[in-house]
Amino acid sequence: MRARGQVFQGKRSTPGGLLTSKLFEINWLLLTLVGLVGLVGVVMIYAATDGVWQRGAFQHLTRIALGGVAMLGVAMIDIRIWYRLAYPIYFVGIILLFGVEFFGLSVNGSVRWIDLGVFRFQPSEIMKPAIVLALARYYHDLPDWRVSNVWGLLGALILLIVPMGLIFRQPDLGTTLLLAATGVAIVFLAGISWRVIGLASVFATIAITIFYQFGLKAYQKERILTFLDPSRDPAGASYHITQSKIALGSGGVHGKGFMKGTQRQGEYVPENRTDFIFTVIGEEFGLVGGLMTLGLYMAVIGVCIWLSLQCKEVFSKLMILGLTTTFTLYIFINLGMVMGLAPVVGVPLPLISYGGTVIMAVMGGFGLILSAHLHRGVELPRPG
Amino acid sequence: MSSLTNQNQNDKAKVTRRTAILGAGGLGVFGVLAARLYQLQVLQAEDYRTLSENNRFNFNMLLPERGEIRDRFGRALAKNRQNFRLVMIPERTPEIALTLDRVAEISPLSDRQRDRILRDIQQNPKFIPILIEDNMDWKTFSALNMRLHDLPGVVSEAGQGRAYPENGVFSHVLGYIGRAGDRDIESDPDPLLRQPTFRIGKTGVEASQEKTLRGASGQLKVEVNAKGRIVREWPDPKTRAVPGKDVWLTLDADLQEFAAKQFATEDEGDDSGGICVIDVITGELRTMLSMPTFDANLFVSGLTQADMDQLNNDPKRPQYNKAIAGGYPPASTFKMTVMLAALESGLIDPTDAVFCGGKIRLGNRNFHCWKRQGHGKMDMRDALKHSCDTYFYDISQVIGIEAIANVARRLGLGEKYQIGVGGGISGIVPDAQWKQDRLGTGWRMGDTLNSSIGQGFVLATPLQLAVMTARIANAQTAVMPQLIIGQEMEPFKSLDFDPAHIAYVRDAMWSVTSEPGGTAYRNRPFAEDSGLDGVQMAGKTGTGQVRGISMTERTSGIRHNSKLPWKLRDHSIFVGYAPFDNPKFAVGTIVEHGGSGAKRAADITRAVLGEALRRDGVGSGPKSEQGALR
Question: Nearest CA of chain A to the CA of B154: how many Å?
Fold first, then answer.
């Protein structure tokens, strides 16, 4: 048996003692890229709020800065601690979600928030990294032969379904689906056999059909229907999508120029400080700005994948890839929605949309990624 | 150990493989997103740019300023004034009822107003501004302006309203403006008519000169936000509204007002009637007045039912334009026509006298002269001077109705003049054909006798009488009346009377006013202090009978007019022109139930004619403001 808890292993091991040298070892490329995306957010929120610094841009900048510090803090914490905390964090998340059920604040008909007096936050955002941690730990601990085994699958399924159910009740369809997709991605990465995947696909198709028929609220169905046929309600539900596409399309290749978006000035696109912020990028900076944003995101994701490849432990790999998947799904769902490829669900564009909890959750996630990478030489306990 | 390591290795390889699969998938999705951006921002960019512009810009119709109507000296008779009003553009107002409630908090809205607003909203396309309230006072208007941010889709405008400042004396001529009705909209495709705040001419000059006065609409490009609030305006000089052109009338506002004052009585309000003053050379109307008047401003701001009832129930019918639509028996003023016909026929020697014994017998019917005891021997000149009916009964039988009717038409009777004020009538110049067509019975000699003194079927308006008199005064051309300056007129036709005959008639008309015994000698112009020394007027009285006079009444003595109820009194008629030696203006005056022609109508005519002459610089003395002639 190998010795557990051995700190120094391999040639490029992590220096545990000196904080400064540990900081030096952090992957500064990812940190820089994340910061850049955050700054794009500051600029675009500034534009979206008509150049009023205090209406979001300043807060966003503060949050990016705080988030950066938090990210570093999380990164510095030993991966073994995160490994140990994986389940506790998950359970705290579950408890908070139950808390929402009983003490939550109602905003726009959905109960998603908990008010702690000093600040309000959405436990569902905590759940996104928490589920990744839990599943990574689960698969790390699970012997390979049980990955495709019924019991092994059932464990993962329970871990996933409990928070999904709670979030769906809020109701928050977007986050529920995001959680589901992340979970599926981790299960897939963990090496589940293709045969199970095939069976699950068939089962999922049936389940989704039944779910759509009985599990969705009228407005959720309406969103999906108007997405499929925007002419159903030109002034109402599909108004967002139509105006959003007008904003993007009228931006053209070069955009209308910073602070010159007429769709934005006319307030035609609702929520353009939060979920629809990409319309401001598209309208004012055109295809060039849009592609640059996509490129920036791809760079972030690419670096994360690259970091995951350098890790040896399954926990680290799955955690990095799970968190990256969540991040990527945010982007896909948001941009798909803004470009009229996906239904309107309340999913922000990570690091760019205004909104505190999301930034903290996402940046905390990047902290975990950095930590996993920083401590890639550290060996984690493995059940025999 | 080795198995664990293997498993670990195996695991790692598997994870890496699957990472590659997911990564490739992710790359694919990014590709799709990029392609979608390309599609939206490059391939379809033009379409979306247009949509964006449509979003961003609204085109508000700009209403042209209506042209003013002025008198011959440029005085505004119909003009525009600031009208503070509030309109609502329904497509920009999400909650109409709530918004109206908020408006009502500041400027109360009656249920009737509310109903009208909601009806207008329903009946018009949603982008058309609906009038909430107009003619608002400045205080309410500015208070509402402060609250506009709470009132989405509500727009305050300082628009144009119509005002008729001249106290009603031009109401019949000018007409008034109002909202376009369904029929107006059907016959006129101009989109301006669909604007509920727009007004078109409904009657009078406002209606007949609509094309000139209206102008053309413009467009204002405005940038609006999603809530319809105007963010900024993009004025473009090319799309400005073209204001309507002014219309100038031949009327003289001061003279018109002066004439209106002459209709005032001491105890019965304004007399009812009409008067026209016409330039005997050019045909320009200096005055065209119907009395009593009404305030056309009421029609613009909205007439209450009470106002309407009062107007409709007034026996003097203020709304009725008596100057061109009032047909009256011209009575003795028709005698010049008969004289001219007689002279033209060559059948009558004017120096031959006819004995007037107070009546003439035709078959078994008596035709009475107005003077019961008779005039004695009368030649043609004396007959006009004394207005002897018997003489005209006598000669008319010789010359016949056809000759009389022919001359009457040449003098301008029986013709409807297109002067730009609708509602005129042609009056009646009767002859055998007319009677056959109208009544289906044959012409009788008695009809000729009645016609010879301007009674019976003959009907004329003050305008026609003025034209008739102008033609006699002009002697050469068939003067046509003109009201609107610049209106295209055909050259006047020749009158085609023997100058000697006309001169004879004119001399007889002079004797009426200027020789002792003339029916209007009492009114001989012009007193020494009138400033019109030596200026002489020619004229003719007429007393239009409105009731049959019974046999018993004739024997017991005809009741005096002043003892009769107003409705049964005779119409007082007078025509005249001046100066006699060099005619300038002719006047036709009718005062409904005004009694003898020698009184009300003659007084008014003399006063107005005198004032017209003074205002035109005739005479030596200073201009009299009051126009008192004695």
Answer: 18
